[in-house]
Amino acid sequence: MLYRYTLPAAALGLAATMAQADPPHIAADILPTHGLVAAVTGDRTAPDLLVPPGASPHHAALRPSQARALAGADLMVWIGPSLSPALATARESLASGATVLTLSEVPGTVARESRPGGVFAVDGDDHGHDDDHGHDDDHSHDEDHAHDDDHAHDHADDHDHGPIDPHMWLDPENARAWLDAIAGALADLDPEGAEVYRANAETAKAAISEAERAAAERLAGAAERPFLVDHDSLLYFEERFGLTVAGALSASDADRPGAARASALRAAAAERGVACLLLSPEGRGGPAEALAQDAGLAVVVADPLGAALEPGPGHYPALMAHLSQAVADCTAPGG
Fold it and tell me: pLDDT under 50 in the chain at which residues?
């Protein structure tokens, strides 16, 4: 702490050293990222959150307090521009001098191709995605994913995920790799705290591994029971836990499904014995819920951002529990 009265000359060097030793200010993009950072920092410092709970990272517009947090950050931790293009612009104007850790670029990060909305192929099935797109679907798509979405939708003002699905935090393997990267970035900025950051990262990795084990146990048997989703945001979670998503009404915010896709999903649900649709919170009252009602599907709400969960060090393990329980409920026999 710096005081306003004049320090003796002998103390000036000590005061400067104390000022330099202050822990770095950190800005994190979304709640799962914020939770990982908080798990590494522990009590040494607390990160600021740029995208508040309930807001979409695809269209994040910073409030004045969030803009100030970003402007004052020594370290910005974010998934990357594919998830939050608006933050890329804000970073350039507000945090040009900050260290930036882009988690999607961390070595070892699992990255998966985006897929178009519609019916997904399952177990060698060859008719997925044919409702609106007219191309085959062994999860092998043109990288630009150009498709007409019922031939009449202008995507210019919406956010498209691009060739790589940006929801990378939903793979706990990525989260563990990122904890090490976060600890390393903080250690570079704050060498005095390096030991604490690395120890906290190890503790957090163990907690995530335990959450992953519990999720796998909760999801035992779920792989054989396909379900639908409104927005295709769970690909990493799906692949990590061997789940079967039969289709998605939309692939991204830019995707505007039409009647043909909804009809194909209803037919696929009947054919494959789908009994449930997993709905994101923002999908309440929308076309996906109407589809579920028309098809006689149960609806379970699941939030890949965990907006209702307590922020902080325990957020990521709690997110794994929340999502796995939602999928377990959605795929429960007779559910």
Answer: 1-20, 124, 126-159
Q: Is the same domain home to 47 and 189? A: yes
Give φ, ψ of 100 to 5 degrees: -120, 125
Does some domain include residue 326?
yes
* Domain identity same for 63 and 143: no
- Using alpha carbons, select from 234, 222, 219, 210 the residue that is nearest to residue 318: 210
- Provide φ and ψ at 68, rounded to 5°: -65, -40
DSSP for 250-317, written as a single string: ESSTT----HHHHHHHHHHHHHHT--EEEE-GGGTTSHHHHHHHHHT-EEEE--TT-TTSPPSTTHHH
CA distance 328 to 331: 5
CA distance 252 to 248: 10
Domain end marker among 148, 181, 213: 213
Question: What angle, 0 to 180 degrees and rounded to 10, lies between the N-to-C axes of helices 315-331 and 172-189?
Answer: 170
Could you report the per-residue pLDDT of 132-148, keeping only the tens digit for each? Answer: 433 333 333 333 333 33
pLDDT tens digit sequence for 223-251: 899 999 999 999 999 999 999 999 999 87
**pTM strictly above 0.90:** no
Q: Is 232:252 a contact under the CB 8 Å cutoff?
A: yes
Q: Which residues lie across from 145 on neighbouring strands?
A: none
320 and 211 Cβ atoms separated by less than 8 Å: yes
Which range of residues forms the domain containing residue 151?
118-165+220-331
